[in-house]
Write a structure and sequence with these properties.
Layout (H helix, E strand, L loop, with lengths): L10 H10 L23 E5 L2 E4 H11 L5 H6 L1 H25 L5 H13 L5 H10 L4 H7 L2 H15 L7 H10 L5 E2 L2 E9 L7 H20 L4 H8 L10 E6 L5 H9 L5 E7 L2 E11 L2 E2 L2 H30 L3 E2 L14
Antiparallel strand pairs: 1-2, 1-9, 3-8, 4-5, 4-7, 6-7
Helix pairs in contact: 1-4, 2-4, 4-8, 9-13
């Protein structure tokens, strides 16, 4: 069921999926054109109903998917990747135009609510999510812009306005799906744990570094036993991804953590704190904050997610036709020599 819980407003994913499944025409039996030298960022790649798309914008779209591709694949299939990126940018321009015509806006609270949903899927609050981004060297506002959350919300409102009640999903529909796919709602045992991690200094003698890290861990454990706040100590210790969240690692099943860590975490009771646990990462002090026993997720808890998922499934064909109609009615003009190459089907 988790695969259906991604933010529905993530427009980048939708237009990527759409552009990737476009059927080439019969003319695509021609040879693939050899990749050309990269154009200047300010060069015009295409105009869409008079709106300019630059080579820099297309390149930025390529860079978003590049981490998901093998370097050699990207190098050998540069024309294909660029054509799909260009198609995504064209679709975005057309959607932006429709959103402007309909005067659809997304409020700041709607944007934050979508981000809260995204954070909650990672067992994080909005503030914790901000801190996690910061710890990873990312700016929250830049991330928000890159994810196009606001545009995604506007797009969803546009689609809902076009669809109306045509694709309504009832509670009975959700119940039928739940009953027919009960195996998807099986929940395995999970533990929610926090930890304080002390890593040996990699720049000193290994034995000396381990001894110092172990001594520091013992000092921290003593402070906890004397009443120090676990989360605040985790934050002040720092130097690892979960530190800004007070060491919170969220709910995890067996097989996720390092074996020595997992063994202790699943043996602890809620609220209980471990002794010092050594793993390949360093020395941990573990605190279990919650547990989920194995079982079947009740329908009432699953209902909301099922309804969202069924709506998205029903919307799919409508969205495809809608985008196709926008492209068919648009004036898409390529500068001379900038027409995308004809790419044959994948073997």
């Amino acid at each position: 069921m988790k695969r259906y819980l991604a933010i529905s407003a993530c427009l980048v994913i939708l237009v990527a999926a759409f552009s990737c499944r476009q059927k080439p025409s019969a003319e695509t039996e021609k040879e693939v054109v050899e990749p050309k030298q990269k154009a200047a960022a300010n060069e015009i790649a295409v105009t869409v109903n008079g709106r300019v798309v630059t080579e820099g914008q297309v390149e930025a779209e390529i860079e978003k998917v590049a981490p998901l591709l093998q370097p050699d694949f990207l190098e050998k299939n540069r024309d294909r990747v660029r054509k799909q990126a260009l198609d995504r940018v064209i679709i975005l321009k057309l959607l932006e135009e429709e959103i402007e015509k309909a005067k659809i806006v997304a409020t700041e609270e709607e944007v934050l609510e979508k981000i809260r949903e995204f954070a909650a899927q990672q067992n994080l609050s909005l503030d914790e999510f901000r801190e996690t981004l910061k710890a990873g060297g990312m700016n929250f506002d830049e991330w928000k812009q890159q994810m196009r959350i606001e545009l995604g919300i506007q797009y969803q409102k546009l689609i809902e306005a076009k669809i109306g009640d045509k694709l309504k999903v009832t509670e009975a529909d959700a119940n039928n799906f739940y009953s027919a796919n009960i195996e998807q709602f099986q929940e395995i045992e999970q533990v929610k744990a926090s930890h304080i991690l002390v890593r040996p200094d990699p720049n000193t003698d290994p034995n000396e570094a381990k001894a110092k890290a172990l001594a520091k861990s013992r000092t921290l454990l003593k402070q906890i036993k004397e009443g120090a706040d676990f989360a605040e100590l985790a934050k002040s210790t720092g130097g690892y991804p979960s530190a800004p969240r007070g060491g919170d690692l969220g709910f995890r099943p067996r097989g996720y953590w390092d074996p020595p860590f997992e063994k202790v975490a699943f043996e602890l009771k809620i609220g209980q704190i471990s002794d010092i646990v050594e793993t390949q990462f360093g020395y941990h002090i573990i605190k279990v904050t919650d547990r989920k026993e194995a079982g079947v997720k009740p329908f009432e808890q699953a209902k909301g997610d099922i309804i969202k998922m069924l709506k998205q499934q029903k919307q799919g064909p409508f969205i495809t036709k809608y985008i196709e109609s926008l492209k068919a009615g648009a004036k898409i003009v390529y500068p001379p020599g900038k027409e995308p190459p004809l790419i044959p089907d994948d073997p």
